[in-house]
DNA sequence: ATAGAATTTGAACGGCTGGTCAAAAATTCA
DNA sequence: TGAATTTTTGACCAGCCGTTCAAATTCTAT
């Protein structure tokens, strides 16, 4: 059912390689439907070997979540704190988030699909960090409204959910080597969010 | 682990009630992590009883997918074929899609998360109907560009993915009884997509 | 009331799951 | 080389999974 990835013998087994292989399998088949045997087969080893590098199945999932957050959080924080105008901040934030979604798309799919399988305090920590991440976007929009750059009728929370939804959805359809690069897609999204579709506006 | 829903004894067991309960459990815990015992418990019956109404677990999943498509497809088709201007069409399409995402949110979560667990030709049929559904949005945007109402630089495919991502994401955060109704949220989304965030534009 | 049909039960099944572990193999380094 | 260490094996376990089915129950209509 799960074909072997083209990694047999090439790479040394480690937490990193396990997590990478698991992310692809979880993204393709779901966390619950991916067995440790599937992962072992994909890596060209036996199930038991995995347990030398990893405590259990859930830890693999935890490591995927941490990887996503490690990549995503810090650059966004820097964008928010930089001293450029809000519209440019938003464009950079969209560009950053789109890039993460595009080149870590298995991890992103897992991140937004499988949190339900995290248990205990770790799941709550993820929820909290997700909220913080979202709040950065909210801040940028509020800033833009306060500066008179964004329309005052905009609800920052709804707009944030809209923008993040737009970017996150990318991992559902983006395939490397398509018509557009992640950078170009991010530009399209920025134009759409900032300028809208209409040629002219009345407000 | 899975608490009983407040349905015990109240409703008669049927395909419909099974599908409804399953949708909530699948949405909350995932298809793979939801056992038939979980569903039976939630409905106040034993596992065996389910098999009188349903062929197997995958059929339950299939019925959820069909339910979503049955609700979503036809109204959108009518909007596309109606003789109103593209901007208004888009607003109505967004409103329609948002409404579906909001008041069938368990089913929508399952629809976009668990297709991987469908097997055989049915999965391909769903993919095809999904694509057709997306193409309706593309059509509206192309129409708007052709009519000179939408900006010519817009890529209809990317814009469609963006809009659908925005709406679909709703099922991840929307809770009935929040600050805004689905109708209001749809209006926000329409404004965002059509007019953008910026107060003024140069193009 | 009672026959007949519709529905539910509860036990049983084979298979797969995540996890464990002593022994074997591979690697490292003096 | 060869001893010490790191890594992998492969067999094993207990438990849960989806599914089946004969028997028991409940419902329906006369």
Features:
homodimer, 203 residues, mainly alpha, 9 helices, 69% helix, DNA-binding
- Helical proportion of chain A, percent range: 55-70%
Q: What is the alpha-carbon Rg of chain A in Å?
A: 19 Å
**What is the overall shape of chain A?**
elongated
Number of helices of chain A: 9
Strand element count of chain A? 0
Share of residues in strands of chain A: under 5%
* N to C succession of SSEs of chain A: HHHHHHHHH
Spans where pLDDT lies below 50 across 5 or more residues of chain A: 1-9
The most extensive interface, with participating residues per chain, is: A-B, 52 and 52 residues
| Gap between N and C termini of chain A | 56 Å
Main beta sheet of chain A:
none
Helix/strand/pairing category of chain A: mainly alpha
The residue-averaged pLDDT of chain A reads 93
Assembly type = homodimer
């Amino acid at each position: 059912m799960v074909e072997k990835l083209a990694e047999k013998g090439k790479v040394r087994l480690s937490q990193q390689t396990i997590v990478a292989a698991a992310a692809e399998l979880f993204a393709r088949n779901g966390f619950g439907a991916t067995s440790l045997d599937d992962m072992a087969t994909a890596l060209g080893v036996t199930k038991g070997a995995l347990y030398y590098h990893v405590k259990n199945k859930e830890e693999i999932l935890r490591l995927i979540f941490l990887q996503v957050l490690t990549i995503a959080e810090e650059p966004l924080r820097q964008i928010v704190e930089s001293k450029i105008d809000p519209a440019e901040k938003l464009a950079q934030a969209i560009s950053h988030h789109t890039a993460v979604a595009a080149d870590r798309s298995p991890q992103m799919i897992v991140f937004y699909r499988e949190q339900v399988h995290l248990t205990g305090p770790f799941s709550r920590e993820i929820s909290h960090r997700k909220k913080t991440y979202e709040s950065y976007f909210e801040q940028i929009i509020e800033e833009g409204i306060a500066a008179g750059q964004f329309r005052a009728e905009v609800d920052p929370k709804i707009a944030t959910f809209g923008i993040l939804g737009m970017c996150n959805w990318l991992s559902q359809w983006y395939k490397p080597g398509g018509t557009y690069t992640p950078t170009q897609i991010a530009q399209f999204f920025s134009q759409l969010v900032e300028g809208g579709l209409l040629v002219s506006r009345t407000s």
